[in-house]
Amino acid sequence: MRGPVPYGTPERLAAEIAKGDEVFIPVPDKGIPVHILYWTCFVDKEGGLQFRPDVYSWNKKMEAALARKSRSF
After folding, report:
1. How does pLDDT run across 13-56, given as a tens digit for each residue?
2. For the whole prediction, is pTM greater than 0.70?
3. Cβ atoms 52, 41 nearer than 8 A
4. How many beta carbons lie within 10 A of that of residue 13, not counting itself?
């Protein structure tokens, strides 16, 4: 892995990626929005509903939060 390369422009970033080498590119400290989706059910290509295990047990927490929120309306 090559050492830090200045972030520069999107074109510069694309050029570094195109080289195919692993390189560390620090990004500006402006924050990067990240959205993490955790789905335990979804609709597949055929329109069928698919379920997956809730490995983090977040469904119950979400259900409780939604129940609390809906009472305030």
Report:
1. 788 788 888 877 776 777 778 888 899 999 999 999 999 999 99
2. no
3. yes
4. 15
57 and 40 Cβ atoms separated by less than 8 Å: no
Torsion angle in degrees (nearest 10) through CA of 6, 11, 15, 16: 30
What confidence tier does 6 reach under pLDDT thresholds 50, 70, 90? low
Instruction: Report the distance separating Cα 27 and Cα 46, nearest Å.
Output: 40
Bridge partners for 42 per DSSP:
50
Spatial CA neighbour of 5 closest among 32, 27, 20: 27
Instruction: Give the DSSP letter of residue 2.
Output: B
Q: What angle do CA 35, 41, 43 make, to 5 degrees?
A: 100
Residue 25 CA to residue 42 CA, distance in Å, equals 35
